[in-house]
Amino acid sequence: MTEQLRFPAEWEGQSAVLIAWPHAETDWAQRLGEVEETYIALVAAITRFERAVICVADEDLQTYAEARLRSARIDMDQVRFVAAEYDDTWLRDSGPITLRRADGGFRLLDFRFTGWGGKFEASRDDQLVGVLHDAGLFHDAEVQSIDFALEGGAIDTDGAGTLLTTWQCLHERHPQRSRESLTTDLATWLAQDRVLWLDHGYLEGDDTDAHVDTLARFAGPDAIVFQSCDDPTDSHYAELQAMGAEIAALRQANGQPYRLFPLPWAEPILDEGRRLAASYANFLIVNGAVLMPAYGDAADAKAQAVLAEAFPDREIVPVPCRALIWQNGSLHCITMQLPAGLQAD
Predict the structure, then answer these.
(1) Residues 9, 218 contacting (CB under 8 angstroms)
(2) Do residues 106 and 98 touch, judged by C-beta distance below 8 A?
(3) Are 111 and 146 in contact (CB under 8 A)?
(4) Are the beta carbons of 225 and 261 closer than 8 angstroms?
(5) Which 8-state DSSP code applies to residue 155?
(6) Which is nearest to 151 in space by CA: 189, 86, 94, 201?
(7) The pLDDT of residue 2 is above 70
(8) Keywords on this record (predicted)?
(9) Geometric angle at alpha carbon 341, from 335 and 345, rounded to 5°
(10) Where are the domains of the chain?
(11) What are phi and psi of 187, to 5 degrees?
(12) Which is the CATH superfamily of the domain at 5-339?
């Protein structure tokens, strides 16, 4: 791992969580009322533990969002608005990937955001990191633009030099690249010693080409939480069983196996016959808590218990996310944590 830079783990101290408020010009237009309720619940949960920084497309949207949050009795001292145009609200993939510099400052990695391989318009989202930097949101931060398509949801780090990702996603974005060359570049850009690749795992209704943050996540340098499926009649069973076996075979940098925490499987959630990607692995870690996507399923309580075991020193806070999976993502996908010290006062 490069000595001058370090990619912090999500469980390290944070200054804020960055989100973007949905509006009628985003893909949420058809179900805006439903998804706004999720955003209000999310901001309420975040602001119990740290600040929420909310991107708004214009002054009118800020006025509206502020009124909705005040009516929900949210502590507005813990909310900051920043004006920025955006195509949609998936800030895990369009927001900054932050490295810490040895001098205490930060490097914001601004990879290309292509709308998950050109599936959707993303030109404004691709400019978001620069817009936020120019708006003065960040303290002592430099931007490094990298002409390479990579989304934040495609990677997870243990903060100590190990990166976890999926071959399907990176190969889909860069079909001409070998695994060896991708490993070298990811390790260099993200200041990692090694890259662990998963070859199995997918969710129906996922249009990210198997982002790792819907499948498997570090829960500490020696632990991995992952989405399992124990229903042999389900279409995901064989693939998620194979992924579970892959994860069990992974080793820490010291050669020891990881402690494993398989998450339960929700009953199929359909929308006009379309299976939605209801993953419990798409949780968000904040200061002192883990915000867990809840789907109104009996497995919600079981997932909460697993996360409580994986994160024994943190409160597990369910956030209703059924509205989010209509657009094929969940809680982690719409958020990006800002490490402690990054947010400018």
Answers:
(1) yes
(2) yes
(3) yes
(4) yes
(5) E
(6) 94
(7) no
(8) Hydrolase
(9) 90
(10) 5-339
(11) -60, -40
(12) L-arginine/glycine Amidinotransferase; Chain A (3.75.10.10)
What is the per-residue pLDDT across 234-246, written as a single tens digit (0 to 9) for each?
Answer: 999 999 999 999 9
> Which secondary structure element, helix H or strand E, spans residue 180, and what is its range?
helix 179-189
Side chain identity at residue 188, one-letter code:
T
Using DSSP's 3-state secondary structure scheme, residue 320 falls into strand
Side-by-side strand order, sheet with 5-6: 5-6, 97-101, 106-112, 141-149
Which amino acid belongs to residue 162? T
Q: Say whether pTM exceeds 0.85.
A: yes
Q: Can you read off the two tokens belonging to residue 146?
A: 């990298």
Contact present, 216 and 225 (Cβ < 8 Å): yes
Closest to 317 in 3D by CA, of 304, 335, 330: 304
- Residues 121 and 115: their CA atoms lie apart, in Å, by 6
- Each residue's pLDDT tens digit, 220-229: 999 999 999 9
Q: Are 277 and 317 in contact (CB under 8 A)?
A: no
Q: Which of 55, 169, 229, 333 is catalytic?
A: 333
Q: Spell out the SS3 assignment of 138-150.
A: ECCEEEEEEEEEC
Q: Is 333 a catalytic residue?
A: yes
Burial of 242 (C-beta count, 10 Å sphere; 0-12/13-18/19+)? middle
Instruction: Please report, as a single letter, which amino acid is at residue 314.
Output: R
Residue written as token pair 């006062």: 345
Tokens of 34: 């439903």
**For residues 6 and 159, is the Cβ–Cβ distance under 8 A?**
yes
Rounded to 5 degrees, φ, ψ at 123 are: -65, -40
Q: What is the DSSP letter of 282?
A: -
Q: What is the pLDDT of residues 142-182, one digit of tens each?
A: 999 999 999 999 999 999 999 999 999 999 999 999 999 99
